[in-house]
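@channel sequence for tomorrow's demo:
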Amino acid sequence: QTRLRESGGDSVQPGGSLTLSCDASGYLDCMAWFRQYPGKEREGVAAIYTGGLLKYYADSVKGRFTISLDNSKSIMYLQLDTLKPEDTAMYYCAAAVFKCSSGSWWSRHEYPYWGQGTQVTVSS
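structure tokens (generated this afternoon):
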């Protein structure tokens, strides 16, 4: 049974950093982070293909966020640096049994497995 559980959300000041973690069980090819603003649909933040460690990022986070896996490929991380108030959102871990691609990794419809979310708040 596939299960995902996020942790690491917190309140930080602008310019600060956080590390989000996603504990995963089950066989997964593509793992991703999404975020959701109140009243908005979930948007892709970053994804990683576990088979080749290919990584994908939304333009809004390139150069500031880093996605990674631990050696066992059962824990996914999202390092958030240089945080901005507009990064405030609920962050979700998502996973699927398909190879991530630049054309689809960002679509929430591609992922059948989701965690419960962890809140990130960036405010002074």
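heads up for whoever presents: The radius of gyration is 13 Å.
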